[in-house]
C-alpha cells in the first residue's frame, strides 16, 4: 500500500479531517493534501510527527505491513457467572475501537434484564504479540459495583477471543468465570461451551 493510501485510510479510521491531522502533526493542511494526493512525500521528521498523530509506526505509514489484526467493530461477548450455585451465561453486544495495541470496549446493550443483574460496562484491552489481550472492565451503571480484569487468547485469524474474567460482583469480591468474544452471538456462546468442555476434559 502506498503512503498516500495509508494516510487517507488511517485518518478515516480515526475520524480525523485533514485539518485535524495537520494540527496534530504540526504541519500545514496543504501539505497533508499533497501527501494524500501522492504529489509529495514528507521528510523523515515530518513523517515521524504524522505517524505519531495517526498512532502508527513510520514503517506502517510507509506502507510496510505490520501483520497486526484489527479488532475494531461490533462483537458479541459471552460471560460465565454463577447465581445461587447455578451457572448463568450472559451474552451481549459490545463495540471495540482499536488504536494501535489499545482497544476500548463499550457495551451496546445489557446481556440480561436489570432485575436479573444485567448492566452496561466499559473497559480496555491491550494486545500483546498479536496473541494475548489483557485489560480491565468496570460497570457503567451507577448502582453496580462490578469491576475486574480480563484475559483473552486471540484466535489466529482474529475472529474469536477466549479467556477469563476475574473481578468483584454481587457474589463476592473475588469471583471468576470464562469469557468469550466473537463476531456473532452463536460463536460467542460456543466459546464458553468450548472452554467449559476443555476444563471438564482436563
Summarize the structure.
The protein is an alpha+beta fold and 202 residues long. 30% of the residues lie in helices and 38% in strands.
Characterization of the model:
The protein contains six helices and eight strands; from the N terminus they run αααααββββββββα. α2 crosses α4. It has helices at residues 3-13, 18-25, 29-37, 44-54, 58-61, 185-201, and strands at 73-83, 86-99, 102-107, 121-128, 132-139, 147-154, 160-169, 172-182. It has an eight-stranded antiparallel barrel. The mean pLDDT is 90. It is an alpha+beta fold and 202 residues long.
Number of helices: 6
DSSP, total strands: 8
Beta strand % = 35-45%
Strand order of the largest sheet: 1-2-3-4-5-6-7-8
Percent helix, as a range, is: 25-40%
Distance between the termini: 46 Å
Radius of gyration: 20 Å
Please tell me what the overall shape is: elongated
- Poorly predicted runs are none
Largest beta-sheet characterization: 8 strands, antiparallel, barrel
Judged by helices, strands and strand pairing, the structural class is alpha+beta
Q: What is the string of helix and strand elements? A: HHHHHEEEEEEEEH
Please state the average pLDDT score.
Answer: 90
Quickly list its features.
202 residues; alpha+beta; eight-stranded antiparallel beta barrel; 38% strand
Please outline the helices and strands:
Blueprint: H1 3-13, H2 18-25, H3 29-37, H4 44-54, H5 58-61, E1 73-83, E2 86-99, E3 102-107, E4 121-128, E5 132-139, E6 147-154, E7 160-169, E8 172-182, H6 185-201
Antiparallel strand pairs: 1-2, 1-8, 2-3, 3-4, 4-5, 5-6, 6-7, 7-8
Helix pairs in contact: 2-3, 2-4
Amino acid at each position: 500500500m502506498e503512503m498516500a493510501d495509508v494516510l487517507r485510510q488511517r485518518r478515516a479510521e480515526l475520524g480525523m479531517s485533514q485539518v485535524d491531522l495537520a494540527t496534530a502533526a504540526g504541519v500545514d493542511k496543504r501539505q497533508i493534501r499533497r501527501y494524500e494526493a501522492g504529489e509529495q512525500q514528507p521528510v523523515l521528521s515530518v513523517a515521524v510527527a504524522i505517524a505519531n498523530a495517526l498512532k502508527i509506526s513510520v514503517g506502517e505509514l510507509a506502507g510496510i505491513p505490520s501483520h497486526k489484526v484489527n479488532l475494531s467493530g461490533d462483537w458479541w461477548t459471552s460471560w460465565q457467572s454463577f447465581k445461587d450455585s447455578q451457572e448463568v451465561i450472559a451474552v451481549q453486544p459490545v463495540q471495540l475501537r482499536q488504536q494501535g495495541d489499545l482497544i476500548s470496549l463499550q457495551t451496546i446493550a445489557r446481556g440480561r434484564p436489570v432485575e436479573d443483574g444485567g448492566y452496561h460496562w466499559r473497559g480496555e484491552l491491550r494486545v500483546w504479540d498479536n496473541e494475548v489481550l489483557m485489560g480491565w472492565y468496570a460497570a457503567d451503571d451507577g448502582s453496580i459495583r462490578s469491576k475486574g480484569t480480563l484475559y483473552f487468547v486471540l484466535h489466529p485469524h482474529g475472529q474469536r477471543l477466549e479467556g477469563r474474567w476475574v473481578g468483584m460482583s454481587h457474589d463476592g469480591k473475588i469471583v471468576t468465570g470464562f469469557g468469550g468474544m466473537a463476531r456473532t452471538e452463536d460463536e460467542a456462546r460456543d466459546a464458553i461451551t468450548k472452554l467449559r468442555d476443555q476444563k471438564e476434559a482436563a
